[in-house]
Amino acid sequence: MKTFKKILHIVAALAIGAVALYILCVSSFAFSETEYNDSIDTANTVPVNEAIYASYDSSRYEDDDYFKFTIPADGTVSITMNHDYYDWGTAMQFWLSEDGTASNIIYSYGLSWRAETQTTKRIGLPAGTYYIETHWWPDDYDIPYNMTINYSQTDTFEKEYNNGIKSASAVPVNTEIGGHIWGHDIDYYKFTVPSDGAVSFTFNQPYESYDPETDVRLFSYNGTEEEHFEYYGFGRASETLTSHKIGLKQGEYYFTVGGCGYLDTYEDFEYTFTVNFEASDYWEKENNDGIKTASKVVNDTVYSGTISSGDPDYYEFTIESAKPVSFEITHEYFTSGGEIHIEISSYNGTEEIAYGNFDTPGTAETSSTGEIELQAGTYLVKLSTYSRNSFGYGLKVKTEEEPVEETTSEEPTVHTTVQNPYSTEPGTDGPEVPSHTNVLKVSLIAVCCLTLVACVTGIILLAVKKKRW
After folding, report:
1. 310 and 254, same structural domain?
2. Beta bridge partners of 258
3. In degrees rounded to 5, what are phi and psi of residue 272?
4. Are residues 274 and 311 in the same domain?
5. Each residue of 198-223: b (16+ CB within 10 Å) or e?
6. Kind and range of the H or E element at 26?
7. Is residue 91 in a domain?
8. How far apart are CA 192 and CA 254, in angstroms?
9. What is the three-class DSSP state of 366?
10. In CATH, what number is assigned to the domain containing residue 298?
């Protein structure tokens, strides 16, 4: 029995020692800053996804702490900060920088003293080494804190520093991509349209009741100049919005995402978007707002486009022989503002020759123009509108005659259905001729009825005669 108790005591002591050793090991392996790390040259190299323990030393004037970390692949980074609760009006500020200098700050964030744990928004970064600088206000208190650099590998988030054309983040079409707006940050993206077709944007962002707009601008770039195609304003009163479509030819394109630039507000929010693409040979090809960039169309085929004031659309068509030509326009119903002006012309290389013009009513979903007689050749159709808002439409150059239904001078044959009065079967061609059996039955019934009437009459007369007696 004594031996057994001794064994229990030994086991208990070993368990306590193991727990103490574990705590000691964890404490020793947890990363703590090493002073002096007050500059980029003395920055502490720290791991990602692990707690980093540090402290602000008030005895040293402006004790800034510098940390350096590396991410092995493209991904997102956010910072989680923990400290004691302080009822002060000031806060900690930290900078995330590519080289540790204020001129290349990727993200700056101010933390409140009154929140003990805070996590920043995610920032998309390419693989590489980055620096974090922390600074505390006021600087006359000793403040212990710990932070974690949260890293997650992903290929579907923007890559800072993408604030210019040459550093634009390349994104695939038909794939949801994440991004982050900070301050008056503008994010640049580029994508490739694999073939002619139509593109639209689906945008998701945090709800804001006062409905500021997130600006998206679509353009191409030839190495020296930008050619702008479309502007979209995604209001934040709706969290998810999809733009109208725009026709593009095969090639590389760019777009920017920016916060509400006309408001003097500090932007800090995440968003996601999708560049929706569908291949098609029956869409306009922007930028087709001039004679030399007109989109070629096949006659008697509907082509889709998008139009607004200041954005005329030119189309080119050819007829092989002289014939009348008309134009059909389709678009969604408008109570007002959907009018489209149509101009027909030709171009000989030096001058434009006008042949006629038409106006379509905006309230009609489908409208056709009158015919215009044209000789064999190549012609231009210019569409324009006074509507400030972009809207989609369909255009068909009509050169074929509409099929006419054949008619005949013969009087149509009228088939009349007559109900047989002697039959319960409807739809016969005429009354049945009654058979001899049916006639006999009718005769017998008539005789019986007459006999009955005679008997009743005789009885009545006899009763009257007796009464007189």
Report:
1. no
2. 186, 215
3. -130, 155
4. no
5. bbbbebbbeeeeeebbbbbbbbbbee
6. helix 2-29
7. yes
8. 9
9. strand
10. 2.60.120.380
Model pTM score:
0.75
Q: Which residues lie closer than 8 Å to 334 by C-beta, 6 or more apart?
A: 362, 363, 391
Q: How many domains does the chain have?
A: 3
Domain around 247: 165-279
DSSP state of 291: G
* Integer Cα distance of 465 and 469 in angstroms: 7
| 222: DSSP letter | -
- Is the domain of 269 the same as that of 305? no
Nearest of 212, 293, 315 to residue 258 by alpha carbon: 212
Could you tell me which residues are beta bridge partners of residue 111?
A: 92
Helix H or strand E encompassing 133:
strand 128-136
CA atoms within 13 Å, Cβ hemisphere of 140: 1
User: What residues have CB less than 8 Å from 386, skipping those under 6 apart?
Assistant: 309, 337, 339
Instruction: Single out the residue of 405, 392, 393, 391 nearest to residue 327, CA to CA.
Output: 393
118, 153, 188 — which closes off a domain?
A: 153
- Cβ(155)–Cβ(97) below 8 Å: no
Residue 459 inside a domain? The answer is no
Q: Which residues contact 52 (CB under 8 A, 6 or more apart)?
A: 31, 32, 33, 46, 67, 146, 147, 148, 149
Going by C-alpha positions, the residue among 40, 47, 58, 54 that lies closest to residue 133 is: 40
CB 195 within 8 A of CB 279: yes
The one-letter amino acid at 228: H
pLDDT tens per residue across span 400-427: 876 555 544 444 333 333 333 333 333 4
Q: pLDDT tens digits for 94-139?
A: 678 877 676 678 888 877 666 778 899 999 999 999 999 887 766 5
Is the bond preceding 194 in cis, omega lying within 30 degrees of 0?
no
